[in-house]
Amino acid sequence: MLAFTPTPVLPGDASAAALAAEAWRQAWKPPRVRLLLLAESHMATSAAELACRLRLPAGLDWPGPEGFVRHIYCPAYGEPGLVPDLPVANAGTGQFWRLFAAIEGNPRRPAPPSRTLPRASRPKPPCCTG
After folding, report:
1. What is this structure's pTM?
2. Is 90 within 8 Å of 116 (Cβ atoms)?
């Protein structure tokens, strides 16, 4: 008979990143879910990044945690101005913005530009090339 030794599903910082993303997901979840959109999003967030606090504009009463996580539910993901202490670039995930624009009925609207790249270096979304 083989012995089974369970191992953690997520190593190291990944478990903390998954919990941080879940906290943001719960914060934004409405009382009644009418539409569920399934989309993959990585959560590769280091311990140093998880320790960074969001700096939201004054007067915003947003729900949820104060910490950063590289996930679409975190309002600072892709918004460098909201988490200026982040040790590495924070470009976000443009494909989610294109997906949301398509759901809204405007599939040609490009993703918001990355604030971490010089204008000439920003890649053009597929909808705006050729």
Report:
1. 0.65
2. yes
